[in-house]
Amino acid sequence: xxxxxxxxxxLDAVTRSPIALxxxxxxxxxxxxxxxxDQAKAIVSALEKQTPPxxxxxxxxxxxxxxxxxxxxxxxxxxxxxxxxxxxxxxxxGEEMREIDCRPSDAIAIALRTNSPIWVMEEVIAEASIPxxxxxxxxxxxxxREFVSNLRPEDFTRGSSSGSSNSESxx
Length: 171
Fold this sequence. Notes:
Blueprint: E1 2-11, E2 18-24, E3 29-34, H1 37-47, H2 57-67, E4 71-81, E5 84-93, E6 96-102, H3 104-114, E7 118-120, H4 122-128, E8 130-131, H5 134-149
Parallel strand pairs: 4-7
Antiparallel strand pairs: 1-2, 1-7, 2-3, 3-8, 4-5, 5-6
Helix pairs in contact: 1-3, 2-3
């Protein structure tokens, strides 16, 4: 799993649909998730630390969790099926842990309100993310190809060829 941060809300240029944009810690990969207008408003208000005069749905959920001494330990976007993302909220009460199925947009809005980390499974990122820094990606690929081209079979052997018995351990 890779921890992601909410970079913001964008609009699809053609459909004008809101997109929640998550980025990895290195700002190299972005995961766009199409969401509804209401969820976009909820995420933006959480990002901007706006407090509504009365609790909205995601605020209410946070208040309920707090009143019952429950904590969202993390949100996990765990799969992508037929262009639909799936997520869970990991909730803890005392020693008991529960996974609650939810839409990623709701999970993101709740995670922002509860200061909980957002994690995405690597296979979801591999399938649906977009590169943010193509130049850095190409440089990394070039360096890896150069590294592989210079490998020799003896680079894969452990220990030394001198027959010395005082080799250091690799920890």
